[in-house]
Design a protein that fits this description.
The strands form twelve sheets. This protein has an eight-stranded mixed β-sheet, with helices on both faces. Strands 5, 6, 9, 12, 13, 27 and 28 form a seven-stranded mixed β-sheet that branches. It contains 24 helices and 44 strands. The protein is α+β, with helices and mostly antiparallel strands and about 950 residues long.
């Protein structure tokens, strides 16, 4: 449209308009590889694009090398290297971008068999009659000072036992005799809640005995004297094994609930954590995204006497975009700067607040804010609507359709969380006066009780003394035959007709499952300004401490008991015996002092009429007194991986696998399927580092063939076997040239869309200061990026110029190879289409080949030609897209020819082609094709070949001879 048509001419004058035609057209985004594998954190099984290594670390975490196995239960698996991270680092080091990462977490097929469930469990489960066959065992500790006065005890620790049981030993509460048994109150033996315990096997033989306590600085600290590495029970990968590991311990909750006393004044009781179908040792289930609890509004009524925080309006919650346990361990959320509406209700009746993503290890004295979203509100029509500011989009995978389904309205801005809005808030059905004022805490099992004189012991997970079908605590009535159980142990935990009830007639009490501590007073921690205190969850060792509490992760991890199956980690359900560990609200803040300036938290104060919001209102609390912030945890995440494995996707675990019966196999298969659509996810390379399973690597190659725009880099069966695969000696795990060649030839592969390298190498991780073994696919990917950055992608990523690993061509330092190849080895490998990684005295370590897996001789049996064709096809397709739906006439054809000629000419000038020809005219697009709305072009290419063999004759002549002779 001309500028003349935009003016309204009414009276004479000169009209000037400015038209900007200098804007650069949008260029197509660069393509890079798809890398599938484990990372420290990040979105699970969701292709995610990053454009720099800094961005990769922000989203997926830094690479993990082999670290010492110190408290693996709490710190997570850091013994298995994250090769996907090293592959991303290798690619991004050259400045080539982007890279698409698919992080592996455990998932399972919809038609899974029992053996195909993701996650982990102990090898055996408790036997209802004998409780001597493994499982999860909980230690409950009570204060004997109130043993006949309605005591309250707490769960202090959980052991996971593959076989046998763990028992306390010492004096029974009602007897001077010494024994070891389940379900019996046993006296402590020293300060700091010290007890004696022993591990027994299924035959009743004692295999380990120790005393332990709950003092972090003591040599007898529980986490120092018991095994805390689940990998040590796995005889497949561990040469020296044990039958158990220590899981959760709750030092802070125990200290807050049960007073520390001297020897003989505390009692402990170990019982199996099993109730009907609920088995805490069964952690089989797919990965779960962690979440916050629902964030709730303030009480908008005046009927404070009937106030219940659990009944307040649910507003929204935050869901971790980084799935699994790591998000729970690393981050928490704060809501701060809460303000009521600052102008007339007719103009803007909504208040505002900030959302902060914080480090879980910080304190209110020194907050570490990772992300902050200021001035958010609950107005769905506002640009500051919290879902719009943070983002609410997510996707789910359809197993039947093998595709993603997309949901949500607003693009995700936060790298870490998305918003899950309450539907009523999103539809504008709640009061505009609502403000974030509190939150639901993590779900926990409900307390159980014993009431003196009753006929049975309360069942697991119940907060009242009743017996319900399917909620029965496991019986140890027959434990005496193996473990020396007594009449007290029988009556104490056996639901049914009790025996020896007389021993319990002086006992009444309840046992609690742990909950996160909440800040009590604004003065806790010695803040210079008490209004800087965040009420809600407190992550310190004591209420006055500023030191991080290491047991924090044990409060926020998934409950277990088939995560996502039998137990909902986010919604309390009485039928499964769960409750909210807390429902915090700022409506329960009380102000004290002569000028009412110091706040403290008192649950129930709103109901009692003493809370400040009851006395003076929410606005006064927030804006006059300045208490306008609270903190809540992110919890319930689950990795869906077998924690007894160093490498949950080890090749020996995948062998013979199938999607329905092997979750690890299914997870990788699904990851490959997720990037199979070239229109949804662009790439030109694919790799799953360290994957040697022949069926899955064949699937990766087939996916690249079907896409026809990517090259798969695979690792081979017969190459080096990592120690995480088994306990074999290093010599038996070494790379074998002949075995590798035999295995590859037996597969009958013949594809130009795949390539492979040999052998594994040694790399130096400068981030972690470690030397580790690394699959050749990782460094091969690095050479592809380096070659592409130094010249063009159609140059061979091999040889001394572009494949010199010792010279940094891999993007990460390569310091050695797992097998030094001689010339005979190199010849045999190259004849089998395996690209050798060779070592030379002067030049160092070099990628010395660039063949694809195509056996049939052609130009496409070389990597540089295949990559050239992938690039040319993609770019010509983009040119073709510019004439779609245009008129099928010569003018349109000429436009295509012109653009294609310009593009191919640049490739020729860059030495990718020696010749080319573009034909699009009436000889290719006939009248019949025109009638069918089609255009047909032919493009002829002569790829440039790389020099791989150099022949030079040295001719020795006589002194008097001329060279021309």
């Amino acid at each position: 449209m001309s500028s003349v048509s935009k003016f309204k001419f009414v009276s004479p004058g000169i009209f000037v308009n400015e038209i900007d035609n200098s804007q650069f057209p949008n260029l197509p985004e660069a393509m890079g590889p798809v890398i599938i594998g484990r990372t420290e954190r990040g979105p699970a099984l969701t292709p995610t694009k990053v454009t720099s290594f800094e961005e990769f670390v922000n989203v997926f975490g830094p690479p993990i090398a082999v670290e010492p196995a110190t408290d693996v239960w709490r710190h997570g698996n850091r013994q298995g290297p994250t090769y996907a991270s090293y592959a991303a680092q290798a690619w991004l080091a050259s400045g080539e971008a982007p890279v698409t990462v698919v992080r592996l977490l455990g998932t399972e097929h919809t038609d899974k068999t029992s053996g195909g469930k993701a996650g982990w469990d102990t090898d055996n489960t408790p036997n209802a009659a004998l409780a001597s066959n493994g499982g999860a065992y909980g230690l409950f500790v009570v204060d004997s000072a109130s043993v006949d006065k309605g005591l309250t005890g707490s769960l202090a620790a959980v052991w996971y036992v593959n076989e046998g049981a763990i028992l306390l030993s010492g004096a029974i509460r009602v007897s001077a005799g010494q024994t070891a048994s389940l379900g019996t109150l046993i006296s402590s033996v020293g300060d700091n809640k010290m007890f004696n315990a022993a591990i027994y096997n299924t035959s009743g033989t004692k295999t380990y005995e120790t005393s332990f306590n709950f003092s972090r600085t003591s040599d007898k600290y529980i986490r120092k004297v018991f095994n805390t590495n689940p990998q040590n029970v796995n005889s497949t990968i561990s040469s020296t094994t044990t039958t158990y590991w220590l899981g959760q311990t709750y030092e802070r909750f125990l200290a807050d609930t049960v007073a520390s006393s001297s020897s003989g004044t505390l009692f402990g009781m170990i019982v199996p954590l099993l109730s009907g179908t609920i088995n805490v040792s069964d952690n089989r289930g797919a990965y779960i995204e962690s979440k916050t609890g629902w964030i709730i509004s303030q009480d908008l009524t005046t009927a404070h006497g009937s106030f219940d925080a659990e009944d307040q309006q649910k507003l929204f919650r935050l869901v971790a975009r980084n799935a699994g346990t790591e998000m729970c361990r690393k981050f928490k959320v704060s809501i701060s700067n809460i303000r009521t509406a600052q102008v007339s209700d007719d103009i803007d009746p909504f208040g505002t607040f900030d959302v902060e993503i914080r480090s879980a290890s910080d304190t209110d004295n020194a907050p570490q804010i990772i992300e902050r979203f200021t001035g958010c509100n609950l107005n769905p029509n506002s640009l500051d609507y919290v879902a719009r500011r943070i983002g609410d989009k997510y996707q789910t995978w359809s197993q039947t359709e093998k595709r993603f389904r997309y949901y949500g309205n607003f693009d995700n801005v936060s790298k870490y969380v998305r918003v899950d809005m309450n539907t009523d808030v999103g539809e504008g059905k709640v009061s505009s006066k609502c403000l974030p004022f509190g939150n639901f805490g993590p779900v926990r099992f409900r307390r159980f009780s014993y009431i003196s004189g009753a006929t049975a012991f309360g069942p697991f997970g119940q907060d009242v003394f009743t017996t319900q079908d399917g909620q029965t605590m496991v019986s140890v009535a027959n434990a005496s035959s193996v473990y020396g159980g007594t009449a007290e142990s029988t009556s104490f935990v056996n639901v049914g007709t009790p025996g020896g009830v007389a021993n319990l007639t002086d006992f009444t009490g309840s046992f609690l499952f742990p909950s996160l501590p909440l800040r009590v007073s604004a003065s806790d921690g010695g803040l210079s300004d008490p209004t800087n205190a965040y009420f809600g969850v407190q992550n310190t060792q004591t209420k006055t401490s500023t030191s991080r509490d290491e047991d924090y992760i044990d409060y926020v991890r998934a409950l277990g008991a088939s995560p996502g199956g039998d137990i909902d980690n986010f919604t309390a359900d009485n039928t499964t015996g769960t409750e909210y560990s807390h429902v915090f609200t700022m409506d329960d803040l009380v102000l004290t002092g002569s000028t009412y300036t110091l706040a403290y938290y008192s649950s129930g104060s709103r109901v009692g009429g003493t809370s400040w919001t009851k006395v003076s209102g929410a606005q006064n609390l927030l804006e006059t007194k300045g208490y306008d912030r609270f903190t809540l945890p992110i919890f319930g995440g689950f990795n869906g991986l077998d924690i007894k494995e160093v490498e949950p996707f080890r090749n020996t675990k995948l062998d013979g696998g199938a999607s329905v019966s092997n979750y690890a196999y299914h997870t990788i298969e699904r990851a490959i399927d997720s990037v199979s659509d070239p229109e949804e996810f662009e790439c030109n390379l694919m790799t799953v580092p360290n994957l040697q399973n022949e069926t899955l690597t064949a699937k990766l190659i087939k996916t690249c063939e079907d896409r026809a725009d990517a090259l798969a880099i695979i690792d081979l069966n017969g190459d080096y076997v990592l120690s995480s695969e088994g306990t074999s000696a290093e010599t038996s795990r070494a790379p074998n040239v002949d075995t590798t060649i035999t295995n590859l030839r037996a597969r009958g592969l013949n594809s130009s869309y795949g390539c492979c390298f040999f052998p594994y190498v040694r790399i130096r991780d400068n981030i972690n200061g470690a030397i580790l073994d690394c699959p050749p696919s990782v460094v091969a990917l690095g050479t592809f990026a380096n070659s592409q950055a130094a010249s063009k992608l159609w140059f061979a990523p091999a040889g001394f110029n572009r494949g010199g690993l010792s010279q940094g061509a891999a993007g990460i330092p390569v310091v050695g190879v797992k097998q030094r190849l001689n010339s005979k080895d190199r010849d045999k490998l190259y004849a089998a289409n395996i690209n050798p990684i060779a070592t030379f005295p002067s030049e160092g370590i070099v990628v010395f080949g660039q063949k694809t897996l195509q056996v049939t001789p052609s130009a496409l049996d070389r990597i540089n030609v295949r990559r050239l064709l992938i690039y040319v096809k993609k770019e010509i397709s983009r040119i073709a897209a510019t004439i779609l739906f245009d008129q099928n006439v010569e003018v349109t054809w000429a436009r295509f020819r012109s653009k294609a000629d310009t593009f191919l000419g640049s490739v020729k000038a860059g030495l990718g082609l020696t010749e080319y020809k573009v034909i699009l005219d009436s000889t290719t697009t006939t009248p019949d094709l025109i009638d069918r709305n089609a255009v047909y072009a032919k493009i002829f290419l002569k790829p440039s070949r790389a020099i791989e063999f150099i022949a030079i004759d040295f001719v020795i002549t006589r002194t008097g001879a001329a060279f021309e002779d």
